[in-house]
# Entry
Amino acid sequence: MKHKKVGIWVRVSSQDSVDKDNALHHEIRAKSFVQARGWKLIKIYRLEAMSGKSIMSYPQTNKMMEDIRNGVISGLVFNKIARLARNTGELINIAKYFQEYNADLVSMDMSIDTSTPIGRHFYRSMSSIAELELELITDRVKASSLSRAKRGIHVGGVAPFGFTYENKILVPHKDEAPILKLMYELFLEYKRKRTVANILNERGYRTKKGNKFTDSTVRRLLQEPVAKGLHIMNRKDSKNKPKPKEEWCIHNIEAVVDETVWNQVNQIITSQKRTNTKPLNLKVHLFTGYVFCICGGRMYTRYNTPSYVCNKSCGNFIRKEDLEEVFKSELYSYAVSPQNVENYFERIKNLITTKEQELTILKRKKNKLNEKIEQLLELHVRGQIKTEAFHSYHAEPYEQVVQINQSIIELEGEILGFSTSKASTDTILQEAQNLYEKWETLNRDQKRSIIEIIVDKIIVGKDDIEINLYKLLPDGYIPSSLENGTNERHTSYSVMR
# Structure
């Protein structure tokens, strides 16, 4: 078997094992094993956080078997049979496949020669043991999950929208919780799931995975009891089938919306489902949702009425035509000079370049540290560094790698954020140019879209109107010449009653 061409199979079943560098340890040990025997390492097949219950559908498995068939490798090295797979049937089929192509399966923990009857018998026996281990592990995981569910501790999966896990306990997410609360408020106002989804999307909000909201997503989130502070665990089995209610584990957590609001929303959803009726397609007026009274109340306009009226019955109102005319006047000065726009994008471009350079440096540093860790592990495997001394050598570079990984994540997030900011700001700037001249040519939907992009709040007093518009250029990265200019509008207008 001298000069044998081999591949290394590295599989760990959980992300936790990946994070603890178990996969890296297996890989380094296998490299030393191959090198000590004078074999030639051709390829490494990495299956990180992938279950051994069934491996035949994995792309890495298909690639490995293709390489065996084409003679790219003639042997596969792995830590032990359980690391190859935990399914007896699949393990036996793999052994037959290797025998067909004159290839060898090599376990580092035991000598197995699948070319002999005794070797094949031993391989089948160990395969059965591996599958038994999987069943025992599955039972232990189920028992552990139930115990954790009873105590309200995270048992896996992504936190629902509006929430996050802190110390394995579900708590409101500082950024998503206000959006979830807004979703309930919008549904009470419009009573249409699709309308709520459209409004959230138009305001730039996205789901936890970064997708646009849909009516089905809105319905699911509105019906989720966790929003009112009721966290239900152990609701479904491993096949995603509902469990009996007596097996559920219910815990009280911090709520995002009041129980009264949650009940009102779900009563509406239930009645719509029962009668299969939809609410009227209410026309959204130009400034609905953006006009507030000086007393703090919202201002609404009803069908066939000429004014926005305070909902707190303080008597304050503003005619719709007057408000639109005042808003149109505000658009006259709502623009940014081309030079300032160019300066802004140049600064964003330079900032992204700087961050990308920092990211490259960190990745190089990470690679060097990983090489150092590999060298230490090889020396340890060979017995040249004692276990007692190994930890002192390993601790410092490993801690640096962990810190660098965190910095890389933060930098990649900043680069993505700046790139996204540039794109969205460019869109807004294009929309904002010459709005005053274009206003009368726009239809109602186009006007509403402009309002949703640039309006923060309109406050109507007894004798004046304050219009607050968003900045066209984000804080912190605008040229200094703009910081006190008309880019951020807080303008008051007198109103004749």
Observations:
- The chain has 15 helices and 15 strands.
- The radius of gyration is 32 Å.
- Confidence is low (pLDDT under 50) at residues 143-147, 474-490.
